Amino acid sequence: MSGPDGTPAIEVSGLTFRYPGADDDSLRGVDLRIERGDFVAVIGGNGSGKTTLCKSFNGLVPHYWSGTFDGSVRVLGQDTRDLTVGALSHLVGYVYQDFGNQLVRPTVRDEVSFAPVNFGRPDHHERTEEAMGLLGVAHLADRFTWQLSGGQQHLVALASVMALRPGVIVVDEPVAELDPARAELIYAALADLNTRLGTTVVVIEHHAEFVARHARSVVLMADGAPVWHLPTRQALARAEELDAHGIPAPQVVRVAQSLDPSGPVPLTVTECVDRLRERGLAAAVADAPREGGDPGPPGPVTATAPVAELSGVTHGYREVGGDLSLVLKGLDLTLREGDRVALVGGNGAGKSTLLRLLTGLKVPREGTVRVGGTDTRTTSAAALADRVCYLYQRPEQMFLKDSVREDVAMFPTGRGAADAAALVEEVLERVRLAGLAHRDGRLLSGGQQRRATLGIGLAMRPALLLLDEPTSSLDTASRDAVTAMLAALSGSIRCTVVATHDMHLVAEWADRVVVLQGGRVAADTDPAGLFADEELMAAVGLVPPQVVQVGAGIGMSPVPLSVAELLARLESSAVPAGKIPSRAGRSEHA
Amino acid sequence: MRKERDRLSVEWVKLELLRTAYATRGGLLSRRDPRVVIGWYLIFAVVPWLTHNITVLAGLFVICAAFVVLSRVGPLVLGLFIIGFVLESVYVLIAAWMFGGDLGTVLALVELTLKLATVSLASMAAFVSLDPEKLSDALLSLHAPAMVSFGVSYGYRMLPILMEEFHTVVDGHRLRAAPLPSKGLLGWRVVVRTATTVVAAFYPLMLNTAKRTRTTVEALETRGFTYAAEHPDGRRIRLAHLRATREDALLIAVSLLLIAAAFAAGHSYPLYGAVQ
User: Fold this and answer.
1) Which of residues 526-565 of A touch B (CB under 8 A)?
2) Chain centroid, CA A281 distance in Å
3) CB atoms < 10 A from the CB of B33, how many?
4) Which of A28, A381, B1, B233 is the most exposed place for a label (fewest CB within 10 A)?
5) Paired strand residues for A217
6) Which of B161, B172, B207 sits opposite A146 (nearest CB)?
């Protein structure tokens, strides 16, 4: 789809922009050229101007956000100042981070046809069918949008902007609100649009692993201007610079650079495994014992006191049609003192249902749930809240008051705790929000919001802390902060259960992993045991962290859980170069 | 002992609202052209006010009740209506008795009750049968402002999200608010607590919704909503699929015949309230 006259897809020159009423420029002298047919990832820390830049492509800046605008943006050769937002949307499609709010019509077909119909296109019907076909959502045409899963909603949002046949499509953080398996689907769809139609794709992305696998070039934004625009491999080789901007390089890059700081970086697990093999670092480590001695058989060997017990629990929900859809079917599970449990499983596996049953907000249709020996049927959820705390997936659901301090204080003061005031201050210190405690939680950044909800949980002083996807939609730095905070909590909470798709969190934090599948516990093991069971991982749609895949690829057993561990074990078992055992078959796992 | 209930629980109310709003049960009127359904509704909303004859009103009431059955109105809406209707009737009798009224007073009040009940039944039958797309298309074709017809469909789109969010916030209050010391006489504390919680829940609900709509408004702009308001092509395309068929004509004809029959019955067996 290269232009007849060689004009680039997007050409920004000298762009400076300040939002109305703001004290600082959001964009400062941006010069950027994106070629037609490119697949560009825009990365950068929070507040670096990524989103503002991308909103200048489709004219929302400056037509909708009418701030101070200097310089020019040309899209497919046309100056954005000369066109309306409506006209520009035929050139540039935009999918928001909170894509659910971009769906405005009741059914999928109506949603996709919304723009072509509004613009009075006589071929609106063909465009609608074509766009639904492109994104593979034609079978959902008559469904209501609220019935769809997050991944399906994202595809519909994509289809609805593709119905205008734009030459450029901008997608803001597809991974933020989707689990990794679904995000992979979105990337596959984008790659397909890019290769088949030649659509120029611009993604705003925090996760370097997705950038490495899919993007052809990378723009690093900092302080409202691009630092550089480089081909992906060169971009990711600058690991330290990326790290400084809050974007840790993918684990494969970190592994390769630790071993060979000057060599080209691998972009995928397969490449990394091949690289290690070439260096003769493969199966030599296969039989090396893991540090800390014999790992023993997988599975918890704890025998501490139970905190909560579920036996024969069956639960489900009525659907709009009236059918009962069972989510949990005769589930048995005991949570013990000192456990750090990661609850994993595909979407709809019943993770949230299980957590809700433990809070007592719901009681099971069959079987019993006991928390601290009390059957949840015999008591109220409010009474159970003295022992159990449940933190919702979306932080704003936890903010009931108009300041963080009041939200944290709500439970202890309500229950008349004598030390409530001191407790609130202590908790605010601990989650590092004392300075922001007067603000409304909704106005904080993603990472701050998550810490605020952790503070609400801490102030409840629960024996059992339940968290639903605590690291979703966080950038990597905030995610690490939350993981560290969870680790620090272990002293004050008897048992923590985290429902998550984030395998990095599982690897770094959990000591017990419960896998839900088909309404039952499919496995009850530890992180290494989970990642080693490739069949199970595939069955529940989970992807292990890259370092685990690399470890498995070079024949390590048990698999390493962190880059540091992999490197340490490689070092301790270093063998003279040239002694390359042939284990070609192992690389299939990668 | 608590138990998961399939009926008369919060979950059930949520499902019933969705079934009602999205016309998932089907029914006689849901297959008709939405403009005809609105026309049909207007007929039954106006006609009861044209007579004082209780026989005619009773006839109209029966007709509308039959349409409610054929339109498969759900138990929640119907239950609320019946409770309201029964309470209203009891009130009529008590009011007549308290103020020393006679049969004439009762009849006068019955007349008003019947009129209101008939209109309520007609609105149930009509609006339970209109899903959001149909209703917004019908409003658009009747030259309601674009903002109104879009607002209706967007309101429906937000309904499930708002209900879910409201429930979550109320659950949050249940878990984190101070527990009640006791239920109080006849559970008055529970009533007060429920009422204050519902009011308090609106603050987070409104703020969260306001945050959502920022994206929505931008997205509407990029997708030609403003453009469509200024150019008629979109409206024409959107309404092209609306076609009144022979069945639609039949529906109106049958309804008019039934109304005529009610008036005929009223002429033969008149029964009047206060005004003779």
Assistant:
1) none
2) 32
3) 21
4) B1
5) A40, A231
6) B161
Residues 6+ apart with CB under 8 A from B4: A315, A362, A363, A364, A365
Which three-class secondary structure string do you get for B130-155? CCHHHHHHHHHHCCCCHHHHHHHHHH
Lookup: tokens for A492: 């004050």
Q: How far is CA B92 from CA B81, B119, B120, in A?
A: 16, 18, 18
Cβ-defined contact of A119 to B131 (cutoff 8 Å)? no
Instruction: Kindly list the residues from chain A whose CB atom is less than 8 angstroms away from the CB atom of residue B212.
Output: 98, 101
Separation in Å, CA A449 to CA A394, A458, A473: 9, 14, 11
Closest by CA position to B32, among listed B120, B129, B156, B119 = B129
Q: Which residue has the tokens 């008349």?
A: A416
DSSP A64: I
Taking a C-beta distance cutoff of 8 angstroms, is the pair A95, A158 a contact?
yes
CA distance linking residue B259 with residue B264, whole number of Å? 9
Q: E strands, A278-420, where? A: 306-318, 324-336, 340-344, 366-371, 374-375, 388-391
Does A361 contact chain B (CB < 8 Å)? yes
Binary contact (B221, A106; C-beta < 8 A): no
Tell me if ipTM is over 0.90.
no
Beta strands in A168-270 (DSSP E): 168-172, 200-204, 217-222, 225-231
Chain-chain contact of B178 with A120 (C-beta, under 8 angstroms)? no
Q: Which residue of B has its CA nearest to A457?
A: B176
- Token readout for A18 is 């300040």
Find tokens 């918890």 and name the residue: A300
Q: Does B146 touch chain A (CB under 8 A)?
A: no
The Cα–Cα gap between B116 and B36 comes to 22
Alpha-helical (H) ranges within A343-415 are 351-359, 381-384, 404-414
Q: Does A125 touch chain B (CB under 8 A)?
A: no
Q: Which residue of A has its CA nearest to B175?
A: A382
Q: Which pair of tokens denotes residue B225? A: 């909503």
Q: Name the minimum distance, in Å, from the CA of A395 to any CA of chain B.
A: 11
Domains and their CATH numbers in chain A: 10-244 (3.40.50.300), 306-546 (3.40.50.300)
Cα distance between residue B68 and residue A59, in whole Å:
50
pTM of the predicted model, to two decimals?
0.84
Task: Name beta bridge partners: A13.
Answer: A72
**Opening angle at CA A227, ends A225 and A233, nearest 5:** 135
Q: What angle do CA B249, B38, A120 make, to 5 degrees?
A: 95
Cα–Cα distance, A239 to A219 (Å, whole number): 14
Smallest Cα distance from B224 to chain A, Å: 5
> Residue A31: what residue type?
D
The kind and range of the H/E element at A168 are strand A168-172
Any A CB within 8 A of B237 CB: yes
* Alpha-carbon distance A177 to nearest alpha carbon in chain B (angstroms): 14
Specify whether the CB–CB gap between A391 and A398 falls below 8 A: yes
Q: Longest C-alpha distance within chain B, in Å? A: 66
Cβ neighbourhood burial of A170 (10 Å; 0-12, 13-18, 19+) = buried
- Report CA Rg, chain A: 25
